[in-house]
Amino acid sequence: MSTVEARLATLGVTLPNPAKPAANYIPAVVTGNLLFISGQIPMGPNGIEFVGKLGADMDVETGAAAARLCAINVLAQVKAAIGDLDKIKRCVKLTGFVNSAPDFGDQPKVINGASDFIVAALGDNGRHSRSAVGVAGLPFKVSVEVEAIFEIA
Question: CB 92: neighbour CB atoms within 10 A?
């Protein structure tokens, strides 16, 4: 078991099978020593979870749980792309999109759910730059979508 997977086990997380693309894109692209992971939504074992707008249909804590689930799916795509999570040298950047009511302004608190999970899973190699963006809507009306860039060995 890899070091990262051992950390995931202590967090009580088993990575799911990665989702197949829902449109004309691929989930991961490697160029040089960078791995780009396409936006991941909060897909759980029973399908899409966390549908709705932050600030209207759900609170920050629920949104952070959605972002955490997105980050779990990001790591599932990483594992599918490179096989071994210990090949991650660092998480370079996360971009989080938050389906937001017009007056909602706590997008950074929501995306902390993804950031905190990535740091817990990868340790210091998980510390990253980040954007947290409020949007009017997301695919399938989900509350959060997260994409990522990793440096790999």
Answer: 15
Instruction: Give 23's contacts (C-beta < 8 A, 6+ positions apart).
Output: none
Query: Under DSSP, is residue 89 helix (H, G, I), strand (E, B) or coil?
Result: strand
Q: Which amino acid is at 122?
A: L
The amino acid sitting at 92 is V
pLDDT at 22: 84
Which secondary structure element, helix H or strand E, spans residue 44, and what is its range?
strand 43-44
Spell out the domains of the chain, with CATH numbers in brackets.
26-152 (3.30.1330.40)
Q: Is the dihedral of CA 78, 98, 60, 109 positive or negative?
A: positive
Q: What tokens does 12 get?
A: 């009580």
Q: Tens of pLDDT along 34-91?
A: 999 999 999 999 999 999 999 999 999 999 999 999 999 999 999 999 999 999 999 9
Closest CA to 120 of 13, 34, 2: 13
Specify the length of the chain in residues. 153
